[in-house]
């Protein structure tokens, strides 16, 4: 198990030991000191049905107990946990429900898979062996393409094939989309790919696939076409089609537009909760999430719509300017579509506009709370339209998450299942993994400031040197494998000696997935009112970590490469 825990035992911090760049952590230190105490929380994946074949029953309820003192947040630069991390697949039933070659041949029997659409076109009265362009709607071509995909991509399981669309103008190719999961996936959820297939027709009128294009080349099959349902070939138990079951599908078009209130009546009969001010601005992402989920939890407890501020301030530890950066959007980092569709939230600018329009006329009342010690339980009786919690300027009493401390802890559970990672970022992850055919091993090499600080991490620099890596990895990773190196070492040529043994890959090898011609760039720019969005430090860490976590073998820095502790000398956890 690698150790991306939300909590770590706090290090025996001695300020004089902190490296220069770790100075920013000192700000977090008073924050961290404050959180010392018993922190217990439970995650309930409430949206998931018991008969969900992808989930172990035991993971429906995941408990995290940080039982004793010294519990604090990560204030380092690792990626934050989100709800999707806690969903683990049931690989037995998962593999059983994937589409196989047998399913495709058995299609006419109709026993194994649901199939309609293309098959209904009884017009296929024998192939017409003309010289014209290939007719991609031909069922036989569809079957040939599906078979070719299953045979070619042996490290993924297929759950759905969309009916092919016409490919290039030469009339010799067809585009097809599909939904898949990597074999032995460690996370629940699906991915979508669409590729261009070059098709050949032989003189006896049989078809064959000559080649399959790269990741996302089948652009004409990308969008779900508005044909009748069933223009696809689908695994019978495709888990996403189970009632009540929600899993992320990476690669489907994201619609994270802001929710709107349809009418005055609807608005004025609503009940709202808003948090205003507070010390979380520009803190670490973990701190932000810990606080934000407290607010969402309180709103759910009170049956109120949470009025939220989608604008985020990015902490300087993630920014290239080295300064805190205002004006980031929640949707750059998290899946707002999932939050919006599974909880009741409103954007604050829309809210205030409506409030100002109708508050007087409809006599909407505001209930102001300025003391975090007033518990949510005490607010349950409040009937006013809006409860506003106002937080002052004095840290740490102005942290939102303080609302969820004390006796509230046992009443309000943070709804982690509402918070998923941005699917736009996960699409980049999917792109990287797909280019390695989902068949790679991964190593996480932490260097940077930690490697320079020999007081807290005495062996890290040597243990992560290329020579040491070659020695350590030789028993763990076979020669010639694709090796993804997730690292904060800015100069990747540092790892050149590994190239003799492995095919090495780094995040920056895939820059085209977020550069100016990428889908990510165009979509985030649109989201950001036409202003381009930087692929910032937090996104880099996020994507790097997620690619690492999808490797077949995962070698962590701490515990695997070095005996130094993650948070400095003498901080290794004694229990798992
Ligand atoms: C996985 O799912 C199968 C079929 O639904 C079930 O029989 C099996 O017990 C599950 N395995 C685990 C570990 O939950
Ligand atoms: C927690 O901190 C106290 C004092 O700061 C120390 O004595 C104790 O060993 C620490 N416990 C752990 C588990 O690190
Ligand atoms: C249809 O099913 C039967 C028995 O279930 C099997 O013998 C036959 O081969 C199947 N047909 C095709 C085309 O797969
Ligand atoms: C048609 O020709 C291809 C090779 O050109 C051959 O592989 C295939 O078996 C033939 N199909 C039939 C039905 O004769
Ligand atoms: C996006 O979702 C919202 C809310 O569900 C819906 O009203 C809107 O029509 C959708 N937009 C598109 C382009 O699908
Ligand atoms: C919220 O709604 C649920 C179900 O409608 C109800 O049981 C609960 O008492 C409500 N909570 C508050 C604080 O009003």
Automatic annotation (TrEMBL):
InterPro entries named in the record: DUF7074 (IPR055502), DUF7075 (IPR055503)
An annotated GO cellular component: Golgi apparatus
Domain DUF7075: 266-557
Keywords: Membrane, Transmembrane, Transmembrane helix
DUF7074 domain ranges (all copies): 132-217
Segment forming the signal sequence: none
Membrane-spanning residues: 21-48
Keyword Transmembrane attached: yes
Annotated protein name in UniProt: O-fucosyltransferase family protein
């Amino acid at each position: 198990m690698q150790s991306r825990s939300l909590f770590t035992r706090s290090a025996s911090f001695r300020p004089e030991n902190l490296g220069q760049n770790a100075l920013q952590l000192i700000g977090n230190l008073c924050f961290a000191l404050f959180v010392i105490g018993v922190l217990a929380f439970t995650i309930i994946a409430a949206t998931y049905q018991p008969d969900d074949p992808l989930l172990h029953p035991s993971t429906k309820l995941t408990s995290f107990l940080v039982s004793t003192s010294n519990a604090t947040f990560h204030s380092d630069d690792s990626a934050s946990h989100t709800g999707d991390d806690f969903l683990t697949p049931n690989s037995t039933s998962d593999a059983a429900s994937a589409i196989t070659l047998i399913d495709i041949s058995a299609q006419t029997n109709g026993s194994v898979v649901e199939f309609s659409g293309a098959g209904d076109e009884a017009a296929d009265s024998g192939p017409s062996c003309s010289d014209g362009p290939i007719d991609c709607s031909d069922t036989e071509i569809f079957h040939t393409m599906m078979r070719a995909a299953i045979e070619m991509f042996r490290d993924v399981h297929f759950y759905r094939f969309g009916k092919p669309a016409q490919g290039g103008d030469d009339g010799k190719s067809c585009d097809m989309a599909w939904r898949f999961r990597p074999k032995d996936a460690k996370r629940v959820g699906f991915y979508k790919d669409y590729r261009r297939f070059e098709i050949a027709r032989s003189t006896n009128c049989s078809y064959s696939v000559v080649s399959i294009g790269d990741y996302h080349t089948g652009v004409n099959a990308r969008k779900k076409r508005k044909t009748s349902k069933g223009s696809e070939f689908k695994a019978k138990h495709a888990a996403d089609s189970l009632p009540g079951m929600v899993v992320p599908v990476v690669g489907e078009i994201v619609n994270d537009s802001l929710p709107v209130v349809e009418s005055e009546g609807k608005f004025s009969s609503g009940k709202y909760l808003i948090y205003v001010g507070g010390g979380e601005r520009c803190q670490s992402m973990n701190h932000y999430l810990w606080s934000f989920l407290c607010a969402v939890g309180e709103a759910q407890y009170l049956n109120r719509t949470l009025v939220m501020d989608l604008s985020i301030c990015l902490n300087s530890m993630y920014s290239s300017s080295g300064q805190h950066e205002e004006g980031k959007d929640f949707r750059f980092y998290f899946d707002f579509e999932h939050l919006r569709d599974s909880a009741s939230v409103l954007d604050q600018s829309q809210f205030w506009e409506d409030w100002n329009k109708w508050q007087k006329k409809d006599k909407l009342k505001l209930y102001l709370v300025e003391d975090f010690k007033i518990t949510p339980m005490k607010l349950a009786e409040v009937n006013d339209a809006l409860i506003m919690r106002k937080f002052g300027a004095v840290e740490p009493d102005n942290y939102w998450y303080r609302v969820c401390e004390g006796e509230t802890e046992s009443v309000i559970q943070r709804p982690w299942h509402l918070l998923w990672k941005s699917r736009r970022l996960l699409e980049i992850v999917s792109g990287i993994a797909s280019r390695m055919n989902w068949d790679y091993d991964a190593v996480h090499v932490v260097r940077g400031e930690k490697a320079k600080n020999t007081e807290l991490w005495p062996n890290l620099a040597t243990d992560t040197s290329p020579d040491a890596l070659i020695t350590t990895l030789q028993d763990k990773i076979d020669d010639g494998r694709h090796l993804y190196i997730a690292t904060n070492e800015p100069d990747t040529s540092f790892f050149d000696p590994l190239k003799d043994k492995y095919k090495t890959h780094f995040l920056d090898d895939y820059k085209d997935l977020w550069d100016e011609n990428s889908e990510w760039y165009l979509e985030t720019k649109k989201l950001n009112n036409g202003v381009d969005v930087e692929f910032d430090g937090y996104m880099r860490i996020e994507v790097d970590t997620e690619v690492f976590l999808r490797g077949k073998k995962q070698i962590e820095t701490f515990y695997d490469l070095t005996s130094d502790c993650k948070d400095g000398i003498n901080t290794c956890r004694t229990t798992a």
